[in-house]
Amino acid sequence: MFLLLLISIFTFILACVVMLIASILSKKTILDREKNSPYECGFDPKNSARLPFSLRFFLIAVVFLIFDVEITMLLPIASILNYTNIFSWLFTTLVFLLILLLGLYYEWFQGALEWSE
């Protein structure tokens, strides 16, 4: 127990020292090149913040979010293959992939219907 407390205190002191050194060595300027450039999301920081943002940026962000969720759900499926019954694993994987494909087709057909109108 004493060793655990000692390691925790040492880790806390080391983290504080590293943050102190980083704040001392960091270059702080009022006119920073990154602060004067437009934000990555498409807003111009010198104009009004009430302007509507780009729909293209929003759609790209949603696509990346969907792919991140899919990857976080697909990776454990591959890692539990050795620990489960092959038939239940196969059934669960196929149902999950079928749901993903149905969602993809639904979105594709919705987009095709919107473009045709």
From TrEMBL:
GO cellular component: mitochondrial membrane; NADH dehydrogenase complex
Transmembrane spans: 6-25, 57-80, 86-106
Bilayer topology: Multi-pass membrane protein
Subcellular location, record wording: Membrane; Mitochondrion membrane
Top-level taxon: Eukaryota
Any one GO molecular-function label of the UniProt entry: NADH dehydrogenase (ubiquinone) activity
Keywords assigned by UniProt, alphabetized: Electron transport, Membrane, Mitochondrion, NAD, Respiratory chain, Translocase, Transmembrane, Transmembrane helix, Transport, Ubiquinone
Keyword Translocase: yes
Pfam families recorded: Oxidored_q4 (PF00507)
Catalysed transformations (reactions): a ubiquinone + NADH + 5 H(+)(in) = a ubiquinol + NAD(+) + 4 H(+)(out)
Enzyme Commission number: 7.1.1.2
Matching InterPro entries: NADH_UbQ/plastoQ_OxRdtase_su3 (IPR000440), NDAH_ubi_oxred_su3_sf (IPR038430)
Function description: Core subunit of the mitochondrial membrane respiratory chain NADH dehydrogenase (Complex I) which catalyzes electron transfer from NADH through the respiratory chain, using ubiquinone as an electron acceptor. Essential for the catalytic activity of complex I.
Similarity section: Belongs to the complex I subunit 3 family.
Protein name from the UniProt record: NADH-ubiquinone oxidoreductase chain 3
The organism of origin for this protein: Damithrax spinosissimus (Channel clinging crab)
